[in-house]
Amino acid sequence: MSNEALILDGESLTLKQLQAWEADPGPVKLADQAREKMQQSVDAVQKVIDEERTSYGINTGFGALARKRISRDKVVQLQYNLVRSHSCGVGDTLSPALTRRLMLLKANALAVGCSGIRADVVDTLLDLLNADVLPLIPERGSVGASGDLAPLAHLALALIGEGEALHQGEVIEGRDVLAVVDREPVVLQAKEGLALLNGTQLSASLSIEGLFHLEALWQASVAAGALSVEGLAGSYSPFDARLHAVRRMPGQIRAAEALREWLTDSEIRENHRNCTRVQDPYALRCMPQVFGAARDTLDHAHRILECELNGVSDNPLIFEEEVISGGNFHAEPIAMISDFLAIAAAELGSISERRSDCLVRGVNPDLPLFLTEEAGVESGFMITHVTAAALASENKTLAHPASVDSISTSAGQEDHVSMAPWAGLKLTRLCDNLARILAIELLTASRAVELQSPLKTTMELQKLLSWIRDIVPAHTGDRRMDGDIEELADALRGLPEV
């Protein structure tokens, strides 16, 4: 664990910082300037109450009950009722990693100082995070519109001493959650329950998870594609820089360059330089175009999600002494990004499955059908391809956009919702499937290259083969391969660079 503190000011957090902190967590603290801004917004909320001005979420009901004025003596009870009534999340709990991320993002959003919540509440949240006391947050129950209300309510429950948390492998409950960090339950003030519940931190955490995983899988796609080119004795000419320069697509140019870094000098290439095959299938020849489109999608998602890291997504918001009610809690920007990333993941898996098919069905006439030692007696890689096909088909269904599937809630007051959490949950499943599809391609392409021995592939791909063989032994006849697929899929986040 790092000793260097990550300071949250609500303005400067980057995805790179987030990823580094998640890899080596250190303490997280609020910046002094964040504390000052937060107190100013708390003072503004108190002034609304003192002057008996009507302001949504401070002294009114919520959603379709916004016209109900709440008396001054009940504004605190309103916040507790909000947290308790909204704790309706269901399904599996978020993983520890996603919970840590959600807690960090929530703290950073509140640090902006527009939410009317005391720094002490966020300090309590960060004390739990720093001690790895992780509230149990169900992953389902949010439509991603008035914030991720139900999941975030479970986070708030832990802060007021009524929730559950995981610590050192054990579930603790109620006030015991806060006792771990020597804290008393938070005593909510006006607006604070709403500030904790409103926000898109679950939606953002899931979308960021997809982005981080897909960044690694994009690199794995390029490596697998290059290895398949060698396994199929394919042509290098479709990766010529001049072709891509005139298309002018940045991602495509970058993808072709990445393929060229793997495909350098090769005995396999020299051996088939004068073969009669004029063109390769699209799954090889059009890799720069498909990989490039995915690359541009990742770059776009990176820009949007980096904005979201420091964005304020609760409601209403306080600007000096003015309280403004709007719709920053609507997670449509994140929903569309998750859907866009899901399409990219599905396409990377679809084209990988096609390359695995090419490898087992004799596109390279020098390779035996299904890459067997003894066809008929052995099935070789016949069914690994079937598994890839099953996963690719599942991903096509999962890639259907969630963001187009609005459903009206809260008696029609919240009549258009984003479904961003579902978009993010689907995306994480798509990425898991893609990792397995790519693992199957890497196993298949490795076998295809090794069957061409003593001809050698490029030095770069020889290193890749060595890395694969450190995880999975060479194929020497039929054996069960489920474990091979899972082990290699899990390892792809650590794929070596060229």
Automatic annotation (TrEMBL):
The catalytic activity, as recorded, is: L-histidine = trans-urocanate + NH4(+)
Tell me its EC number(s), please.
4.3.1.3
Q: Which domain of life is it from?
A: Bacteria
Say yes or no: keyword Lyase present.
yes
**Record keywords, A-Z:** Histidine metabolism, Lyase
Q: Where in the cell is it found?
A: Cytoplasm
In alphabetical order, the GO MF annotations are: histidine ammonia-lyase activity
Family matches, as Pfam families: Lyase_aromatic
The pathway entry for this protein reads as: Amino-acid degradation; L-histidine degradation into L-glutamate; N-formimidoyl-L-glutamate from L-histidine: step 1/3
Q: Which family does it belong to?
A: Belongs to the PAL/histidase family.
Protein name, per record: Histidine ammonia-lyase
